[in-house]
Design brief:
The chain has 2 domains: 39 residues, no CATH class; 40 residues, no CATH class. The chain is extended and about 50 Å long. 67% of the residues lie in helices and 0% in strands. It starts with a helix and ends with a helix. It is an all-alpha fold.
Length: 88
């Protein structure tokens, strides 16, 4: 809980408020984020927004990365899979 409280005030939400970025890095990051989001607005969830979400490969890559990092060791231990056995 203490880590959560500290991170609430220590971590930055937006590039505009990140004090550790130089002006050049901040401008580059803002440009990249603008290119990445394009004209997408997530102010409501409707059928069109749901289609856009499920067609975005970053959703699936993020899910895969999360489960690969957090769940694979537990699953491997539970199924008693060794890394040498998992490789072809």
């Amino acid at each position: 809980m203490a880590c959560g409280l500290v991170s609430k005030f220590w971590l930055t939400d937006w590039p505009e408020t990140a004090g550790f970025l130089t002006d050049e890095e901040r401008a580059l990051l803002i440009r990249r984020l603008a290119t990445d989001t394009g004209d997408a607005m997530m102010n409501r969830l409707d059928k069109r927004a749901a289609k856009r979400i499920f067609r975005d490969p970053k959703v699936y890559l993020g899910t895969l990365a999360y489960f690969g990092k957090s769940q694979w060791p537990r699953l491997r231990h539970k199924l008693k899979i060794r890394l040498a056995d998992a490789l072809p």
